[in-house]
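TL;DR need structure tokens for one chain.
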Amino acid sequence: MLGNPFRVPAALALLGLSACGGGPIGGPLPRTATPVASATPATPLATATTTATPDGTPPTPPATRTPGGGGSILPDICTIGRVVFRSQSGETCCIAADPALLPPKPVPGQPSLVLTDLPLGPATVTIDGYVEDFAPLPPDVTATCKTLNTSGVRPCDTLDASAAYGSEPKAITIFGGVRVNLGDVAVSALPFLLEFTPPQNASVDLPVEMGFTVVDAETGIAAPSVALDITLDAPQGEPPVFRPITKRVPLELAPCKDSGGEPCSSGNNLGVTGFFARAVAEYLSYLPNGPVDARITAQNLADPPRDLDFSYRFFVGTPATPTPTLPVASAAGRAAGGAVFVPTPTPTATPELP
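>> reply
TL;DR here they are.
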């Protein structure tokens, strides 16, 4: 059935703290993996480049991987993988890795990811894949996982993104000096964002233009599930007191599909299906100055459906000269003739926030 997870043995090994149980034992190390001192920082991915703009716009996904193929448990639309370790003792860490370090069935001499210096006892490991060239740091994690790998790994990033594929937390137990193989991992397609505006942490003037592209790599997106909520400090009463309020923003949806119709992604290279979403202009013609927290939610058409729940912040500044209305389609979709919406004139009077 479309959208069901596929289960593969993940070539990820985990080692307990050597100080608490002796040296690693179990299987041989990959020939190309040389143990490094625990203080040695992770080396950036040789094939990755950081292209995030100063205003925090997520970088454009590089077109180096195409759907199909497979040298990784992550499908080829994933440019980077993320491994998150959470110990029952409360210790956590995150590492971004080249998907090639997560092969389903490694052959002798093939590099694979090995985490080391982990706290002993019960823990979970979660694997996600992203179409961006960075992997975001989860909000509950601050440390970078230590690895035996000296290349193909780097710290998780402070920019945010939504995963295109991901697993549920896999329960494991770490023993001192013993290599623990992760075993089979179920990796599922998830609804995710290709692009959103305003960008993360950007400062914008009125009228605010909000839009995003939400897609799925296997089943598509359930249109009724697509939603946008904003939380902001709004003046209430006389004299005004600013209190946080949350409002559901009406959306206009336009379908997109790679390899047919209006493409969702650059060059149709991701093979995804979904929607361009645009906030109704009148609703955002007045917002008070200050931070705005946006929350985008959606579900795909898998059985059972899987959820997108993505939040980020931008800032409303002092109104200046009117800004042009932006189409919702991604930059790639616009270049390929994607959907463009007719702008709604800004009202002459300043309405109250609905």
